[in-house]
Design a protein that fits this description.
The chain is an alpha/beta fold. The protein has eleven helices and 14 strands. The chain has two domains: 3-217, Rossmann fold (3-Layer(aba) Sandwich); 226-295, Alpha-L RNA-binding motif (Alpha-Beta Plaits, 2-Layer Sandwich), CATH 3.30.70.1560. The protein has helices spanning 43-51, 73-78, 95-106, 114-120, 136-147, 166-183, 194-197, 218-225, 238-243, 264-273, 288-295; strands at 3-14, 17-28, 32-36, 58-63, 66-67, 80-83, 154-158, 186-191, 203-208, 211-217, 228-233, 247-252, 255-259, 278-284. The structure holds adenosine-5'-diphosphate (ADP). Adenosine-5'-diphosphate is lined by residues 14, 17, 19, 37, 39-45.
Amino acid sequence: MEYILETNDLRKQYKDFKALNGLTMHVPKGSIYGFVGKNGAGKTTLIRLISGLQTPTSGDFKIYGISYKDNNISNARKKMGAVVETPSIFHDLTAYENIKMQYDILGIKDYRTINDLLKLVGLENTGKKMAKNFSLGMRQRLGIAVALCGSPEFLVLDEPINGLDPEGIVEIRKLIKKLNKERNITILISSHILDELSRVATHYGFIADGKIIKEMSAEEFEEDCKKSINIVTDKPLERVLRDNDYNYKLINDTTANIYGEIAITPLVLQLHEKGISVIKLTENEENLEHYFFSLLGGKKDE
Ligand code: ADP
């Protein structure tokens, strides 16, 4: 698999405090990578490092296969856009003027594309309105538009939905999907709200205490999270589950999780036919946040 971003045993220490403590992650090309972790886990620190705002204490990271220690890293960064913490926009300028300013900074001469960019983020009708009079969601989208000025292939968004109202969240979500699908932009989004990311992410990296505790695809994640029945029998049950094409995961000889919509009576009868009795049957509904906490070893969020 081709990775747009790879980190290897990355560390960032502030005095005695290890903000990143051996972080290894892989962002596949074309993915929407949900970077999930509680506040203080180290998400912004990672984003600051890859954006070049700070340097690592040790370890390595590569963008487009180029190590940050390589002189070519600045070329790799030209293909990357980021909105870190608050969007870098000028509040006394309109949306158009903000983009034009960024074009000037980047030396882009063709102003005709400014309106296309505003349209892409849904700000084409804001006219003379200054950014200070925008809603938080509009400012966030303008920040994304500024990050998109150099036509990056990799976009990094740090908590893009923080503080947004439900409507603002929906707009950002739509925009993220559109940028990924229509422009093939690989997107790294950090958030402490797993549920929100689960609507857009194709891959996940779960971070806790400056380390990635698990990376997985959305399919693997759904498989782990989806509704299941936990069944305990008096004799080994795998054969019955396999012969009847159940989607299951064996926990031990006499205990399994069975996934999907299960009709209980046929299942009990199929087992009964083979002389197996059901001792216990419970429904698990793995909630996303619960799953996240179970990955963290059962720690609760503050
Ligand atoms: P997240 O984005 O996941 O909320 P951060 O990367 O912002 O987490 O912070 C990780 C930890 O590093 C936090 O405990 C934070 O207080 C600490 N930290 C961040 N920047 C500094 C700094 N400049 N000096 C000291 N500690 C810092």
